[in-house]
Design goal:
Arc Repressor Mutant, subunit A, Tetracycline Repressor, domain 2, about 60% helix
Length: about 230
């Protein structure tokens, strides 16, 4: 008697093991994976719903469009850093130096980008993200870039940074931090990467090694107080 082997179906998305994970979070998780795997245009809400294991109509209860899901994913890659920036800047200059604040902001941003699901930062430069419907994300990132510029100008006052306007400093610093997105393409970022990137931000502003080391130590104290 001929036996047949069961046909292998498409692997189902495995829901997060945390039982407290909401349907909304599961949708974001599945969408992040699909956007990175297949691209934005090739991913549909039906594909996202199937990956989660829910009806497409149920997905629309949480998000009305695919673009709304993507907008939220992009925002989550910036929002935590921006919130921490506001807390850190409140300590400057009375309780923390600009150099320590810049190191703390850069380190926080690197960690945020290191933890975004499926390395969502890889989607930043796709043509679709330049559309008006993603203005909120670009506004968040613009605010973060302005903060980098302001802190970089203060930290580098009297050094190399004095030759550049704060807008240019912000552009350079945020792109230096976002190199972690490229690191994630080949391996998982390590603590040493966070320190290397944050320290490089200070060097870009013209700080010497002793000033970088002092700012690093001060920043670690600052972050522990804000934790």
């Amino acid at each position: 008697m001929k036996t047949t082997r069961p046909r292998q179906g498409r692997p189902r998305h495995t829901p997060p093991s945390d039982p407290n994970t909401s349907a909304r979070e599961q949708i974001l998780d599945a969408a992040g994976a699909l956007f990175v795997e297949h691209g934005i245009a090739a991913t549909s809400t039906r594909m996202i719903a199937e990956r989660v294991g829910m009806r497409q109509a149920s997905l629309y209860y949480h998000f009305t469009t695919k673009d709304e899901i993507l907008a939220e994913l992009l925002a989550t890659s910036v929002r935590p850093s921006l919130e921490m920036v506001e807390r850190i800047q409140a300590w400057v200059p009375e309780r923390a130096s600009a150099a320590a604040a810049l190191y703390a902001v850069a380190a926080t941003d690197v960690r945020t980008l290191s933890r975004t699901p499926y390395n969502i930062g890889t989607l930043y430069l796709l043509p679709e993200v330049s559309a008006e419907r993603f203005d909120v994300f670009r506004s968040y990132r613009g605010q973060l870039q302005e903060s980098y510029g302001a802190l970089g100008a203060l930290a580098g006052a009297g050094n190399v940074a004095r030759d550049l306007p704060s807008e240019r400093i912000g552009e350079l610093l945020i792109q230096l931090v976002e190199v972690v997105i490229q690191i994630r393409r080949s391996r998982e970022p390590e603590a040493a990467d966070t320190d290397a990137i944050a320290s490089s931000c200070l060097r870009l502003c013209g700080l010497g090694e002793s000033a970088v080391a002092a700012a690093r130590d001060e920043a670690r104290v600052l972050l522990s107080r804000l934790a």
